[in-house]
Specification:
With about 210 residues, the chain is an all-alpha fold. It is built from eight helices and no strands.
């Protein structure tokens, strides 16, 4: 009886190896690891935003529309529960992607506005935050690319015969991926500029003060 059990176990191991189960399992774990890094970098960016908004508000409080846009975009991202189920739910994945893209656009608008405030641009705290966010955006791009590659490899394996039969048997599903639409624009980090003024262009005056000529 014991020999029969051992033989059955050995057969199961050989069967799972031959039918691609081990490869599926390995690639599935690679996708999860790549996704975790994407989420970690997005969270790091989100953690920097409140301090950034408060710093900008100190010099450009009148830019309410832009400041509110960043704050609301961050809140929308935070309202989405990033559970492991996201990787098997195309609709929820697309919702999460859209929210992150909206936050990226809002940040770009904020940094574009700050070009009009030389005093803000020369503030050391703002410069540090801007540099940290740019670095985080670059890490987000790298993490997203790794996730895209991991999912592409996994999805190809899941669809291949006869591995697709094993995938169906054990519940391995095709996973959603980041769309390529506007990918280059989305992945462009906000530009960091440390020039405190633009030659030949008078800086807009802070609220309540006349512009210098």
């Amino acid at each position: 009886m014991r020999a029969w059990s051992v033989g059955l176990l050995a057969f199961a191991v050989l069967f799972l190896s031959g039918c691609g189960y081990n490869n599926l399992q390995q690639q599935d774990e690679s996708v999860k690891a790549a996704w975790s890094e994407v989420v970690n970098q997005y969270q790091r960016r989100a953690d920097l935003i409140p301090n950034l908004v408060n710093t900008v508000k100190g010099y450009a409080a009148q830019e309410q529309k832009v400041l509110i846009g960043v704050t609301e975009a961050r809140a929308k991202v935070g309202s989405i529960q990033v559970t492991p189920e996201v990787l098997n739910n195309p609709e929820l994945f697309a919702k999460y992607q859209a929210a992150q893209n909206q936050l990226t656009s809002a940040l770009k608008s904020l940094f574009a506005v700050t070009e009009n405030y030389p005093q803000l641009k020369s503030d050391q705290n703002f410069r540090d935050l801007q540099s940290q966010i740019e670095g985080t955006e670059n890490r987000v791009t790298v993490a997203r690319n790794r996730y895209i590659q991991a999912v592409q490899s996994y999805n190809v394996t899941v669809r291949q015969f006869p591995v697709n039969l094993t995938a169906k048997m054990f519940g391995f599903q095709v996973k959603p991926n980041f769309t390529v639409a506007n990918e280059s624009q989305i992945s462009t980090a906000p530009t960091v500029s440390f020039d405190t003024s633009t030659p030949g262009t008078p800086a807009p005056a802070p609220s309540g003060q006349p512009a210098t000529q």
